[in-house]
Amino acid sequence: MSNNRVSRRQFLNYTLTGVGGFMAAGMLMPMVRFAIDPVLQKAGGGDFVPTDKKVADITDVPERVDFAFEQVDAWYTSEVTSTAWVYKNGDKIIALSPVCKHLGCTVNWAGSPDHPDQFFCPCHAGRYEKNGNNVKGTPPLGPLDEFEVREKDGLLQIGKTRPNTLV
Amino acid sequence: MYWNSKDVSVFLEQKEFVDTAVIPLLLIDGQASQLKQNASSAEFLMALTAFIENQFKGRVVLMPPITYTKKSNYQQLAEEWTETLSEMGFKHLFFVSSDMAWGTEASELNVIYTPSIPLENMDQKLRQSVLDDQLRQIIPVFANRWAKNGQ
Ligand code: FES
């Protein structure tokens, strides 16, 4: 019986190694994770969201295209629907954000009968040209944002917004 | 804008542009047979007013709903709220409800009446298009009233 007794020294050794090991692991794991994180990341298709708009149907007149994506707020996932104004400039597809650069209302193409070839914001009569450039003298201070776009299987896909590259 | 501290600080800075309050009027009937219907129309009203907020974000503040019962004094509610919101600096008040009683009880409020559509069994897409249709009918009401009472 007395042979099996764990001495004070042994006991401390065991416990300290054990606890120390856990602590070291706790510290090292995140570091390792950070280092190899890119490897662990899911290889997704980027942040493009599919729409059901056929690229062939897009004309040179801006048209509303809705698209839905999942938004994760902390642990809550919800489906959000967004809109873009889409048209063709020659062969290039342009998708503009409908969010007014003044205070964030939703703008409409040809929303004002007096300006049939501009975007119009109903809130404070802000106006934008077709390329998204804000009309001077109306409240907005900058051009409409642009969405990244790409085509997949003949359908339009919409990506992130970026500052307008057309003006 | 929503009635939260972040948006309200924008409202305080931009009072000349943010001049409109949207107020959902929500009836809780209380009768057991009506509960489901009540809840469903609350759901609809909140979804619709959120759509309105999204469309007119830069000019309207969507207030938390005024919730009342059948026993509430409609007339008094109307007066209290009109007074308070006007004192806050709102020039235009849009009350939205699917309770038809507002038309007769307090007609001077000009409540925008919207029939309640049960959204609970719809998928996201259908929901979106139903709400869109309703929004499209409401937009001119806003535009007209804004035009009438000046910018
Ligand atoms: S929010 Fe568009 S003009 Fe003010």
In short:
Chain A is α+β, with helices and mostly antiparallel strands and 167 residues long.
Describe the structure.
The complex is a heterodimer of chains A (167) and B (151). Chain A is of the alpha+beta class and 167 residues long. Chain A has one helix and nine strands. Chain A has one helix spanning 8-40; strands at residues 49-54, 63-73, 76-89, 92-96, 108-109, 119-121, 126-128, 146-152, 155-162. Chain A has a three-stranded antiparallel β-sheet, with no helix packed on it. The longest helix of chain A has 33 residues, at 8-40. Chain A is elongated and about 100 Å long. With 151 residues, chain B is an alpha/beta fold. Chain B has a single domain (5-141), classed as Rossmann fold (3-Layer(aba) Sandwich), CATH 3.40.50. Chain B has helices at 5-13, 35-55, 74-87, 101-105, 124-148, and strands spanning 20-28, 60-62, 66-69, 92-97, 112-113. In chain B, strands 1, 2, 3, 4 and 5 form a five-stranded parallel β-sheet that branches. In chain B, helix 2 (35-55) crosses helix 5. The mean pLDDT of chain B is 91. The A-B interface holds A 66, 68, 79, 81, 100, 102-106, 121-125, 139 and B 10, 14, 17-18, 54-59, 124-125, 128, 139, 142-143, 151. Bound molecules: FE2/S2 (inorganic) cluster. FE2/S2 (inorganic) cluster (FES) binds next to loops of chain A.
